[in-house]
Amino acid sequence: MKKFIYIVSILVVMVFVLKLMLTNDTTKVASNKAPIGLSTFALYDIATHIAEDTQDFYMIMPFGADVHSFEPTPKLIAKIHNSALIIYNGTGLQPWIERMNFTSKAVDMSRFVDLKVVGKHHEHHDEHEGEHHHGTIDHHYWLDINNMIKMSNVITKELILISPKNKEFYEKNRDKYIAMLKNLDKEFKTKLSECKKDTIVVNHNAFSYLSDEYNFHSEALSGLSPEAQPDAKTMIKLIKLIKEHHLSTVFFESFASDKAIKSIANEAHVKVDVLQALGNITADEAKKHMTYEEIMKENLQKISQALECK
To answer: Alpha carbon of 47 to those of 18, 40, 69, 105, 161: distances in Å?
Structure first.
């Protein structure tokens, strides 16, 4: 009996030691630091996939808010000032955030990606290079999957600076995330490689990065801001284009008014569908915990159907 009790005691001690070893495993260490704010959904998606629950992340604008028109409350401004790190889009997408005097580190992600100037292509690889923009920058650069890969690398480095103990964990998750992005890029290339149509019509000019990368045209009712009022001349031009190209669908975005695009659709006798520009996601998409990958795949499916791809 004593021998049995002795063996049980040894087993209990071994289990306790094993639990201690697992608890002290440095592959994933929770952080007690202040929260980290991300200004757009794509940045938030990258950060949360890389760090998981080791950091306290928040979207600077709430899910369901329009990135183009959102303005912060005093409470939100105080939260930003008390954050350990702010990572924001730049390019004038959210002018209020670029005017802030940050008390903590703030990273303008547009300094690390390839940017399109309307009517041109502008490359910017080094944050120390001078700025030579002539025109309006297209701030929807997260729709370029290669830019998402670059942002993943930058965000990983910033997270490691905040939590060096999680270096291996973050780098492993970054590699998984980048592998997902590369597979997503392959899906776009494969699915859009053979299509009967070569043009989509959208509510505002948010999809140029996608159309340039995957060799189709994106004709927009308004410019880079969905709030711009379309003129009659542009509407007539798009109706004519839709009929000439025998298009079946026109698109608008989740946070844009669909009034003008529905008017065009009614006149041209085509259907209307939603493309997600991913500056933010809707409250319903957030409840479903939808990811950049899932939403981009939905976009791909809709675009490929509109272009009548094989």
So the answer is: 31, 11, 24, 16, 14
Q: Model confidence over 87-132: pLDDT tens digits?
A: 999 998 888 988 888 888 999 999 999 999 875 444 444 443 434 4
Query: pLDDT tens digit string along 191-216?
Result: 999 999 999 999 888 999 999 999 99
Collapse the DSSP code of 88 into the 3-class scheme (helix H, G, I; strand E, B; otherwise coil) and give the result. Answer: strand
Q: Indicate if 96 and 58 belong to the same structural domain.
A: yes
Domain CATH code at residue 136: 3.40.50.1980
Determine phi and psi for 204, rounding to 5 degrees. -145, 165
pLDDT digits (tens, 9 = 90+) for 174-197: 999 999 999 999 999 999 999 999
> Strand (E) positions, the chain?
36-38, 57-59, 85-88, 105-108, 116-117, 137-138, 199-204, 217-222, 249-252, 271-274
Contact 59, 281 (CB under 8 A): no
- Say how far apart CA 22 and CA 25 lie, in whole Å: 5
Q: Which two tokens stand for residue 255?
A: 């946070």
Q: What is the pTM of this model?
A: 0.84
Contact (CB, 8 A) for 73 and 61: no
**What six digits make up the tokens of 256?**
């844009």
Residue ranges making up the domain that contains 59: 36-189
Residue 19 inside a domain? The answer is no
Q: Residue 201 in contact with residue 242, Cβ under 8 Å? A: yes
Q: Based on the fold, state whether residues 211 and 70 are members of the same structural domain.
A: no
